[in-house]
Structures are given as structure tokens and as C-alpha cells.
Design goal:
By secondary structure, the protein is α+β, with helices and mostly antiparallel strands. The protein has three helices and ten strands, in the order H-H-E-E-E-E-E-E-E-H-E-E-E. It folds into two domains: 58 residues; 75 residues, no CATH class.
Length: 170
């Protein structure tokens, strides 16, 4: 305690600057301005608030409303508006050789009662969520399958079980 009494004004200024930099660094990290995604993972963006309101139909926000955004964030360093986005990290799904992946769309037009699999003739690109939904893609199990390759998954749960890999994309 006695040592603190003998600190000069220059040392007190250095302590004040160091403490304020530490507080600013913690606030900067907590605000979510800068996010890092490893290359073997991807990020699912959820907009927490927006002046355009919330999603009115479905749960993917196609018009920049608050809610899950259709674009995924690949590996790297990304910058966002502070306190506006929540980032959900998911594993990059890899379908092993000799296996297939089926897609279950969680958003889109509902299937008619007589239809078991979605027949998306126009909306067949599962990698582009925005185009899939704007072209009238149906939700539920899809007819098209995915071959063996690393594929970005737009889902939090990518639990897979052989002989076919479950890959909920939308």
C-alpha cells in the first residue's frame, strides 16, 4: 500500500491508460464486432434486431429482417455491426466416399398431404438458400441427394448415421 503512495503522475497515467485499454478490449470482444470462424467450420448468422421488423413467414429472413439470414459465413475473420448479430458455429459436413446425403429443408412452401418428397424442379440448388426459397422451394425431405464431398450445412444439428448421411440444409 505504501508503494502506491509514491507513484508519480506519469505512472498513474500509464496505469489509467492500461486499464482503459483492457476495458475497451473486453467491450470490443463482447460486442461481437469481429468474429473468427475456423476453416473447417461455418457460421450461421442470426440478426437480433432490425428496423425492418421480424420475419413474418417462415424463419429465414429473406428481406434483411431480424432472424436467421440465408447467407452462411465461411472460415476467416469477419466484421459485423456491434450487438446486432449472433453467430452460431456449425461443423462443415463431409459425406464420406460411398455414402450419400439427403437434404431436409426446414423452411419453404409446405408439402401437400399427398406428397412425401419435395419435387423442387425450379428450386434445386440447396447451396443458395435465398434462391431456393424465392423460387418456391418446398420444405421437408428433398428428392435430390448429395454426393460425397465437403458441403456447407445450414443447420445446428448435423448428426449423421450410415448408410445415408443426414444433412438438414435449410
Amino acid at each position: 500500500m505504501e508503494a502506491l503512495q509514491y507513484l508519480g503522475p506519469m505512472k498513474w497515467t500509464a496505469i489509467e491508460v492500461a486499464v482503459s485499454l483492457i476495458v475497451l478490449a473486453i467491450l470490443f470482444w463482447w460486442s461481437g464486432v469481429v468474429r473468427y470462424i475456423p476453416n473447417d467450420r461455418l457460421g450461421i448468422l442470426e440478426k437480433l434486431w432490425s428496423f425492418r421488423g421480424s420475419v413474418s413467414n417462415g424463419f429465414i429472413a429473406l428481406n434483411r429482417e431480424a432472424g436467421y439470414q440465408p447467407e452462411i459465413v465461411r472460415g476467416g475473420l469477419h466484421f459485423f455491426m456491434p450487438f446486432q448479430y449472433s453467430m452460431h458455429r456449425a461443423n462443415l459436413v463431409t459425406i464420406p466416399q460411398g455414402q450419400i446425403g439427403y437434404v431436409f429443408a426446414r423452411d419453404g412452401k409446405p408439402l401437400p398431404p399427398t406428397q412425401t418428397l419435395a419435387s423442387n424442379t425450379d428450386a434445386d440448388d440447396f447451396q443458395d438458400v435465398r434462391a431456393f426459397l424465392e423460387k418456391g422451394g418446398q420444405k421437408g425431405p428433398q428428392r435430390k441427394i448429395l454426393r460425397e464431398a465437403p458441403t456447407p450445412s445450414i443447420s445446428r444439428n448435423s448428426s449423421c448415421s450410415p448408410p445415408s448421411r443426414s444433412m438438414p440444409l435449410i
